[in-house]
Write a structure and sequence with these properties.
Its cofactor is Mg(2+). Helix content is about 35%, strand content about 20%. α5 packs parallel to α6.
């Protein structure tokens, strides 16, 4: 779809989140049936796949962990394509842009196009450019994050500062304290503070972000995942990066990644699918699976190769329960 036609659709979809959406389902009030265990159940797998026309995939913890590709993932993706399924890769990893993900898909041998990727950095960028529509010169974004965020901001022609600029990746000096206090060390055009996963956080960047928010800048986040799965282990996630600012300013950012329904509405607006015929596949209950349940999707599938374990959703009274689960994505081959 041409970008000029997509923009009004995305605007409508993002604006929908500002009101109570009739589609949004409460995770705590929805009836939680016992999830179906599909690994080794060939008939069950076929029946489950046949229910859906569209599959939304998380990436980290589902397709791979760091540079480790999980077994039979490319074959599983190919199998779903052969069945005519629509595939969308919905990721909260803000460090990579859509083009970065395309390169990774190619590198690990997964068939996917850049247009099939919808990341949290892209979600934030289109929200800023097409919904907020700030007027120059007061339209700059202060970034606490990596190059993926910068690339997506650039794709929407949004000015920014901070991020990977070496001038911000340093210790704070006495002159910095003075400059922030009297305003001479602040950029007067900054109107938004956007946080994501930042591998080089610093007291200087936090101090600048804090000062901008105190002066009225909007506080946004690509996502607020507490942890990041990588190389078979867990590390602090984007939510851990925004946490110091949350503590300092006394309020949460508007999150534009999973499980935010702003992201779901935008994904639906771009890819045009029937929610009741769509399934979310993920490894994390409080982002991926909650994203699908709140969005009113027809099903959710948890994989056990990432953050959440089966004990988390099989326990009595578990707040978030998937429709089904498998040990790993490749088990869908039957």
């Amino acid at each position: 779809m041409p970008l000029t036609r997509l923009r009004p659709l995305l605007k409508v979809q993002f604006q929908r989140v500002a009101f109570s959406s009739p589609r949004q389902i409460s995770v705590t009030t929805a009836k939680m049936a016992k999830p179906q265990y599909l690994t080794g159940d060939k008939a069950g797998i076929e029946a489950f796949i046949d229910k859906f026309d569209t599959f939304l995939f998380d990436c980290d913890g589902v397709l791979w962990s760091g540079d480790h590709l999980f077994p039979n993932v490319p074959q599983t993706i190919d199998m779903l394509r052969e069945k005519g399924k629509q595939l969308v890769f919905v990721t909260n990893n803000s460090t990579k842009s859509r083009s970065d993900y395309k390169k990774k898909f190619d590198h690990v041998g997964i068939t996917a196009s850049e247009e099939e990727v919808f990341g949290s950095s892209y979600s934030a960028a289109i929200y800023i450019s097409r919904i907020m529509k700030l007027q120059a010169p007061k339209n700059k974004v202060f970034v606490l994050g990596e190059s993926g965020m910068e690339q997506e901001l650039q794709s929407e022609n949004i000015p920014y500062c901070g991020g990977t600029d070496p001038a911000f990746r340093r210790d704070m000096t006495e002159d910095d304290f003075k400059g922030i206090a009297n305003g001479s060390g602040l950029d007067p055009d900054v109107a938004i503070v956007l946080t994501g996963l930042d591998f080089h956080p610093s007291y200087y960047k936090y101090s600048l972000g804090f000062a901008y928010v105190r002066k009225g800048a909007k506080f946004l986040a690509t996502n607020i995942d507490s942890t990041l799965p990588n190389q078979g282990s867990l590390y602090p996630g984007a939510g851990s990066i925004s946490a110091p600012l949350v503590s300092a300013v006394g309020k949460d950012p508007l999150s534009l990644g999973k499980p935010s329904q702003a992201m779901m509405d935008a994904v639906e607006g771009k890819f045009k699918f029937d929610r009741k015929k769509a399934c979310m596949i993920g490894d994390r209950l409080n982002t991926d699976i909650e994203f699908g349940i709140k969005g009113g999707l027809g099903g959710t599938l948890a994989v056990l190769t990432g953050v959440s374990k089966k004990e988390d959703f099989l326990a009595e009274g578990a707040p978030v329960v998937p429709s089904a689960y498998v040990d790993q994505l490749g088990d869908l081959l039957g």
